Amino acid sequence: MQMEQKLPFSPGRGWAKISRGLINIGLSLYAIVTLYPLFWLFTSAFKTNEEFDSRPFYLPEVWHWDNLSRAWKVSAMGTSLINSTIVTIASLALTLLLGALAAYVLARFQFRLKAFLMGLFLLGMLIPIHSTLVPLFIMLKKVSLLDTYWALILPYTAFELPLAIFVTAAFLTVIPKEIEEAALIDGTGYWGIFFRMMLPLSLPALSTVAILGFLRFWNDFAFALIFISKPALKTVPLSLSVFATGYSTDYKLTMAAMTIAVIPTIVAFLMFQEQIMKGMTAGAVKG
Amino acid sequence: MTTSARIKGFILIGILPALLIYLFFVVVPIFWSAYYGFFDWKGIGAAKFIGFDNYAEVVRDPIFWKGFKNNMLIVAASVFGQVPIAMILALLLTRSNLFQKMIRASVFMPMVLSSVVVGIIWSYIYHPQIGILNFLLDSVGLEHLKKAWLSEPSISMYMIMIPIIWNYIGPYMIIFIAALQNIPSEINDAAQIDGVGSTRKLFQITLPMIWDTIKVVVVLCISGSLKAFDLIYVMTGGGPAHTTEVLASYMYNSTFNVYRFGYGSAISTSIIILSLILILGSQYLMKRDYR
User: Fold this and answer.
1) pLDDT tens string A7-25
2) pLDDT per residue as tens digits for the range B101-131
3) C-alpha radius of gyration, chain A, whole number
């Protein structure tokens, strides 16, 4: 790559080496400061309360793995993990299927209301999610969906659809028309084209949508806070927030519960780093 | 069935499910919220129509404007905190070797955490008894600076800005890196041949080249700052004495703590109007060229 010349400074070679070294040290320090709160979280999860208080900067003297299992039990983490998984998977399935279908229609067909519909979906990306919480609460209450999985699945899907549609449609518009025409001549119907050609072809776009959706649904707090009050239906962020205030003096247990809770997203991040960073950035720019 | 009827049918079935869910859960609530804003309603029992009273109250409500001011402070923190830090990091991280990738990933990492976790971690960092911030001040002999960081009205809002900045630098950094990598290498070569100094190059070549990106990022800061709810709810709930209230938290508190559903709806509608004005206004201003 031609990155070499892009550095904003390029004096003598010795100087360049020294300044590069200093910069790398600075960058490393910055990264350490950024990651420190996480490091503190993970190490505190294995300490005793007394140690948490008196030696916050050190590794635990004895690694208390039982903190994790106790936190799991006390915070009912199992239930909330199951709830979060159900809600996330259902919302993802709906978002991907409906989003891809709508994107296929919007990207490959010409019809009268097309521009209007695109504009309508674009509008959804400008509306701050929180501003619809009160009316949504009232509406969900009226149709008796409060305190059900649907109270989360349907709004999650609705708010993720614009992004899903735009990312997928952008991907589908560049596929040559001929492929589709050939399939039509062969007698494949539109559904066949959608399921056997468009879905597989848009897989890269859909996987970006899926990763972003996973992070958004899994981490959502505001919707869960307002639409869910039954303990049996609480998602991970919601039960964490309750747990943290309810057990506020047993810090190590809260830290342990949070450690369990962040593992799925951190593992996802480590696995799909590039995709997540690019996708979240693209998502932000679109929004 | 004729071909065109088949196409029409497919278009309809293809778009309808997505459209219905979207309309019902995103678009319709906006109108409901404007409508409920005309009522005095406790969430149960009969709603009483009171005309524009709620909206008039919102406009005169000092706490609402306090929340708006705090939202604007968050915008300022993003524009003058996140953007410069993200820019400096991006300028230093345009290479793609392992070291640089690791730094980028670390800067980005907080983005994948639930804001509840972020909020609780930072509440503990600031905690007057067990917090590491006070512990740190103790161990370097600055005991007199120790504070209950989140319950002191004069500083609590600033304390909340730190985790917000910490949390969201990553995406801006990635956007800037992409923009920097798109600058044609000929331009950098030419600058080097002409012997342009590094500071001059930064301000006269690099920054103007990515000016459009900077504009986009500023608009993102504005729309992003309106989303600050989770962290504030977890860390302070808008207190002490409304000092850390933002529009969304005030809406939540008015609706679900004091059960004024009509007033909460009026606040929601005001948030939508204010944010559309801000986002569209900033986009309009940014489109004009100041170079």
Assistant:
1) 555 555 678 788 888 999 9
2) 999 999 999 989 999 999 999 988 898 888 8
3) 24
Q: Candidates 3.40.50.300, 1.10.3720.10, 1.10.10.10, 1.10.1670.10; correct CATH number of A76-286?
A: 1.10.3720.10
Distance between CA B197 and CA A136 in Å, rounded? 57
Hey, is the C-beta of B28 within 8 angstroms of any chain A C-beta? yes
Determine contact: B230 vs chain A, CB below 8 A: yes
Q: How far lies A27's CA from each of B103, B106, B199, in Å?
A: 7, 10, 20
Cα dihedral A20/A22/A24/A30 (nearest 10): -150
Shortest alpha-carbon distance between residue B132 and chain A (Å): 7
SS3 at position A178: helix
Who among A134, A159, A281 is closest to B255 (CB)?
A134
* Cross-strand partners of B40: B48
Token pair listed for B116: 């509840």
Task: Tell me the sheet residues that pair with B49.
Answer: B39
Q: Which domain holds residue B112?
A: 53-287
Task: Supply φ then ψ for residue B49, to 5 degrees.
Answer: -70, 125
A195 touches chain B (CB under 8 A): no
- pLDDT band for position A287 (cuts 50, 70, 90): very low
Cβ neighbors of B8 (< 8 A, separation 6 or more) are A111
The C-alpha atoms of residue B34 and residue B265 are separated, in whole angstroms, by 7
User: How many angstroms separate the CA atoms of A146 and A43, rounded?
Assistant: 38
Domain residues of chain A, as ranges? 11-69, 76-286
Backbone angle region of A144, left / alpha / beta, with phi > 0 → left and psi within -120 to 50 → alpha:
left
H/E segment holding residue B96: none
Closest by CA position to B264, among listed B88, B83, B92, B54: B54
The predicted complex's ipTM stands at: 0.87
Mean pLDDT of A155-169: 93
| B52 Cβ contact partners less than 8 Å away, ≥ 6 residues apart | B38
Identify the burial level of A70 via C-beta atoms within 10 angstroms of its C-beta, where 0-12 means exposed, 13-18 middle and 19 or more buried. middle
